[in-house]
Amino acid sequence: MEQQFEGKIAIITGAASGIGYTVAHHLASRGARVIGVDLSESVVALMAELPGKGHHGIARNLTEPEAASEIVAEAIRVAGTPHILINSAGVALLDPAVDVPAARWQATIDINLSASFYMAQAAGRVMVEAGYGRIINLASQAAVIGLDQHAAYCASKAAIIGLTHVLSLEWAPRGVTVNAVSPTVVETPLGKKAWAGEKGEKAKREIPVGRFAQPEEVASLIGYLASGDAAMITGSNVLIDGGFTTV
After folding, report:
1. Ordered per-residue pLDDT tens for the chain, 247 residues
2. Is residue 153 annotated as a catalytic residue, yes or no?
């Protein structure tokens, strides 16, 4: 397998499961040194098992005020200045809009939006100084369409796209690109469980390609945006939704 990320250091949040873990494996198998971050303590063992050497897991709550700066400092201490940041950590707490509890609204914003910003800010500072960086934020198809019972989730992911636009504008002259990726439902273990049965079958019928996305497909897209080949792409929100938003 081509070692296109040889010598690159990547911080990945939400790295213990789902898209985050798949991206960690994708980049590691192509030569990157991965610093995986997750709320779950399992991230330490999972990162140690990735292909290659020198990977490092950090179990941390990203909503803690100093978490982002301390995570980036630890990454620099154990591996060096990061070249890549993948903001994949997130939650989907679903309620009818009239019933969204304040605590669940705030938790969604704190994890999906604020944590992504603070990680981008902390990594962006050192990337701008170094003159190189690739930041990819996980948004969602829900950032550009409305979904039933997704008021907090849709709002947080739409805000990720706005944030991506601003960061890309400010940091492009310093060699740092910032993009968002917006998948439809992805068949991670959690995605399969949440969209099982007729609910999922109905959703698939509404997607022109007739299926949900695979984690590896999302990881491949993120891998491209994280590579040197994507230097001219910044400020974009790349949909990976099987054509759903075109119909």
Report:
1. 678 999 999 999 999 999 999 999 999 999 999 999 999 999 999 999 999 999 999 999 999 989 999 999 999 999 999 999 999 999 999 899 999 999 999 999 999 999 999 999 999 999 999 999 999 999 999 999 998 889 999 999 999 999 999 999 999 999 999 999 999 989 988 788 878 889 889 989 999 999 999 999 999 999 999 999 999 999 999 999 999 987 5
2. yes
DSSP run (H or E) holding 183 = strand 176-183
DSSP characters over 73-99: HHHHHHT-S-SEEEE-------B-GGG
The active-site residue out of 21, 132, 153, 224 is 153
- Scanning the structure block, which residue is given the tokens 């296109």? 4
Domains and CATH numbers, the chain: 9-240 (3.40.50.720)
Backbone φ/ψ region at 18: left (φ over 0), alpha (ψ -120 to 50), beta: left
User: In 3D, which of 90, 84, 77 has the Cα closest to residue 30?
Assistant: 84
The DSSP secondary-structure symbol of 137 reads E
3-state SS, residue 15: coil
